[in-house]
Design a protein that fits this description.
Layout (H helix, E strand, L loop, with lengths): L1 H47 L2 H44 L3 H19 L6 E6 L3 H7 L5 E7 L4 E5 L6 E5 H7 L1 H13 L1
Parallel strand pairs: 1-2
Antiparallel strand pairs: 1-3, 3-4
């Protein structure tokens, strides 16, 4: 599963790098402006020899620099959120074909075998429409009661017929379960 997301993230990296460059340039210009403004103010106030006013202006400059840094961090975090959302969209479009599709089918099979081994009696499956045929194929010989399609990027949910016990093997769940790890990875790459 990590290989699938790694490949998807690599495909999105070019987009990410362009957006990062733009955000860094904007932040750098704002920091440069704030620093230049601070230097100019400092020179003006030194000539006025007003220590209190100089200290106030320096504090204002420091605040502006901090605000710029916060804004840059906020932009990065928003960008990370967009990447994590776009991973699922990219997978919907490209994830079931080629080498990535083979890895996905292998992941799907492994997850299905593990998830259904938890059920001694009949079970129901909810899956992405694109995975319905694969799920039915994997369920041959199993105590499958029904398969319904849901709005998932990929993967499935298995539950008992009454819905009391459920195993979530959707890609959305995989992204959510690994969100912090991927967030850290993306943030490190944004910093490079």
């Amino acid at each position: 599963m990590e290989k699938i997301f790694s490949e998807i993230l690599d495909n999105a990296r070019t987009e990410a790098e362009n957006a990062i460059r733009v955000a860094k340039k904007i932040a750098a210009r704002e920091v440069e402006y704030a620093e230049r403004e601070a230097r100019e103010r400092s020179e003006r106030y030194k000539s006025e020899n007003t220590a209190e006013l100089l200290a106030l202006r320096e504090r204002q400059s420091v605040v502006r620099v901090r605000e710029n840094k916060k804004r840059e961090l906020s932009q990065r975090q928003a960008f990370v959120e967009e990447i994590l959302k776009s991973v699922l969209e990219i997978f919907k479009k490209e994830g079931r074909s080629g080498a990535l599709g083979e890895k996905y089918q292998s992941w799907l099979k492994t997850c299905f075998e593990k998830a259904t081994s938890c059920f001694d009696e009949e079970f129901c499956v909810s899956c992405a429409k694109e995975d319905e045929a694969a799920i039915k194929s994997l369920a041959k010989g199993a105590k499958l009661k029904e398969v319904v399609t849901g709005d998932y990027a990929g993967g499935f949910k298995v539950s008992d017929p009454k819905g009391r016990i459920s195993v979530d093997c959707t890609l959305e769940a995989a992204v959510k379960n690994n969100e912090e790890k991927w967030r850290d990875l993306i943030m490190r790459r944004l910093g490079e």
